[in-house]
# Entry
Amino acid sequence: MREGGSFSDTAEATVNSAAPMRVRLPAFEGPLDLLLHLIQQQEVEIADIPIAKITKQYLETLELMRELDLEVAGEFLVMAATLMRIKARTLLPAAIAEEEEEDPREGLVRQLMEYSRFKEAAQDLSRLESDRRLLYERGAPAQLEDPEASELLPVSLFRLLDALKTVLARQAPPIAHTINAEPVSLEEAISLMRSRFLSRPRLLFEEILLSFVTRIEKITAFLGLLELLKQGRVAATQETLFGPIWIEWRGDEPPDPDRNEEGDA
Amino acid sequence: MPTPKQIVEALLFASDAPVGLSALAEALESPPEEVAVTLRELGREYEKTERGVALVEIAGGYQVLSRKECAPWIERMLRARRKVRLSRAGLETLAIVAYKQPITKVEVDSIRGVDSGGALHTLLDRNLVLIQGRSKGVGRPLLYATSPEFLSYMGLNDLADLPGLKELGSVLEERERAQEELPLSAEPAPVEGAT
# Structure
């Protein structure tokens, strides 16, 4: 299946030795999803969306995505324009604004509410799906699942970006940077992380990134992690929604679909 | 001569998908009401004798399924031979189709704020969604609806058993009310050959 539940099987990345890596944002991580995520973080109601603050955070996330060379889908830019237009209208002096009957946020609020209802409905369906999966009919199902049996929450790209933001913010910006050493390449970063995993298969996201010194190295390491996730060599999980993010080593071999043919061990 | 109960049990055993009451009645050459009574008896018997399987009403039909308490052992034996779960994009798209059917792709896209072509394609591939026809609107776009397999996949007997959409505010209510009046297909056909 092309679109998977966890981030790992949805991001598409290609690695060339020299060319910058491009990671395509999975289709389901759309602008409405990002906005809901930001609103949820603010712990405000959708109807009271603090437009200036949310716009700022939205643009910051886009900027970070660009810095990571993630391909930002056109829908994200359209939404950025919408947000800035709404923000401009809310800043109009009261006298002019009075002519406008409705809250400039109304259209967006309605869209977010509708989307959020279906996000909840999707969660309901997910629960039904889980329950139904416990009931087996005669004969084995045809399709195979990669052995992602863990019931831990898969971590979304946005959560990973948040975590990256936190790690990067912890570092004071260098006053002047002299580039004297060749920065770590993507392959080197992956190889470094791999050797750490081999001694300990489960590491905290932060502890991995903090083992890289400069900002550019951290970003390279982050891209390396995305690549490992995409290849299924690591999994990113959380025990609780805002809990620490764990990165778990799964092994170098991609999940083998014929595994079950060998019978039970 | 086997009893009707034995025949019903054999018919359900021989089928790997829900069987409709009418199909059972036809095979037994008895009135559906009688078969319904037999089915209830059989179901109660399964309960009483603490079997590993149960008689379940699903997707508008009847099916013998393993008890959920037995799932861990089945999983241990079958290992990775389970169906792939739907992705978040898939579930979101499916939820929109389920509650707003029939619906065009453009309408799904506008609710999700992103292109849902890939997700719809996957859902069509997995027979959870089907194309019901064409809208009378401009360009006569395709209309998507849920399939009988959708009910089976979610363990529902009827679309009316879908959990209610949660109300988030009054903004949407009017619009939703109009949508909810859409007739949902009353009696889904039993699933054929779903594995």
About this structure: Residues 32-48 of chain B form the longest helix (17 residues).
